[in-house]
Amino acid sequence: MRRTDIDVLRILLCGGVIVAHALLIFAVEPRYHLKSAEPSMIASAIYEFLRPTLMTTWFVLAGWASLKSLRSRGPLRFVTERATRLLVPLTVGIITSGSIIKYIELSHGRDLGLNGLRLVAPLQDSFFEFFPQNLKFLKLLTWSHLYFLAYLFLISVLMLPLLMRLTKRTPQREVPPAWMVYLPALPMAALLVAFNGFWPYMPNLIHDWANFSYFALCFAIGAGIAVWPGFETRLRLEAPRLALLMLVAFAGMMWVGESALGRVFVGVLGWSAVGAGLGGFARLQPQDTPLVGYLNEALLPVFIVHHAPLLLIGTVVLPLAVPVWVKIAVMSLCSTAISLAAYHWLIRPWPPMRFLMGMNPKPPATLPANAAPAA
Question: What are the boundaries of each domain within the chain?
Answer without folding.
Answer: 4-366
